[in-house]
Task: inverse folding
């Protein structure tokens, strides 16, 4: 379900106290978005994924130890949609793509020849991804060293974790509906 | 009127947190898509107030909207939802 929210001058009072470049100021009959009415093409965003892997032979799903029944149980049974402006669609937290160049990195995922496949960042504590890691008893680790669990989330947002008895070293894809991890082979 | 058409929503405790990605300005009988850079919306659909790191608390049916457009326009709104569908 796509969430829809209507907000208007009647429903919400604008606060104009933020440090701003340009403010959408009220001019009696609404707000001034004159700078935004002919938006430019999206700016060049920080390159997160150099070359996403091609997956082969998915393994059996590793059940989420905390799973309840039904799709999207983890999100109060509401479908979660990735938001394209955020790294990993926002699954791992509120790290906007526009800010990635300055964000602290958590290493890079590399291929067998040590070529970078993707850059990774810290998981935000209250994010869906943090809940997923917690459900599986995983702790995020800096990507790069061998023998890590490499977890590919939505929109190629990838994080690494120290392996456990259940989640051994290797690649996994997140199934966001079931909130499970699916082993993959490159 | 500013319409936030699409967002990815999850829960932070009892509060719903949405990351919007499509927005339209309806003004003067015309509709204009507004390109978002990023933003966050917090909504409290519960009967009690809940704390947020960025403000003291968000009361019942309160909404907090923080947006930045591609062109660098900031929108910061806080208010009470008068209709939920």
Result:
């Amino acid at each position: 379900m796509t969430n829809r929210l209507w907000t208007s001058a009647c429903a919400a009072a604008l606060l104009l106290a933020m440090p701003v470049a340009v403010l959408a100021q009220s001019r009696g009959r609404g707000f001034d978005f004159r700078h935004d009415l002919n938006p430019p093409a999206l700016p060049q965003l920080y390159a997160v994924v150099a070359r996403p892997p091609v997956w082969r032979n998915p393994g059996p799903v590793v059940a989420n130890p905390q799973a309840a029944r039904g799709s999207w149980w983890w999100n109060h049974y509401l479908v979660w949609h990735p938001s394209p402006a955020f790294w990993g669609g926002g699954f791992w937290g509120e790290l906007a793509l526009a800010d990635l160049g300055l964000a602290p990195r958590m290493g890079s995922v590399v291929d067998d020849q040590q070529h970078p496949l993707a850059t990774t960042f810290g998981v935000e504590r209250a994010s869906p991804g943090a809940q997923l890691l917690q459900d599986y008893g995983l702790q995020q680790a800096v990507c790069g060293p061998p023998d890590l669990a490499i977890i590919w989330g939505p929109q190629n947002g990838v994080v690494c974790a120290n392996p456990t008895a259940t989640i051994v070293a290797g690649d996994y894809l997140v199934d966001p509906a079931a909130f499970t991890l699916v082993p993959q082979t490159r | 009127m500013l319409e936030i058409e699409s967002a990815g929503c999850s829960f932070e405790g009892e509060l719903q947190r949405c990351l919007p990605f499509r927005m339209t300005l309806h003004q003067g009988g015309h509709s204009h898509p507004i390109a978002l850079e990023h933003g966050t919306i917090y909504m409290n659909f519960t009967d009690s107030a809940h704390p947020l790191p960025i403000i003291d608390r968000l009361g019942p049916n309160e909404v907090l909207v923080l947006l930045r457009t591609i062109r660098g326009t900031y929108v910061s709104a806080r208010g009470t939802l008068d209709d939920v569908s």
About this structure: The mean pLDDT of chain B is 90.
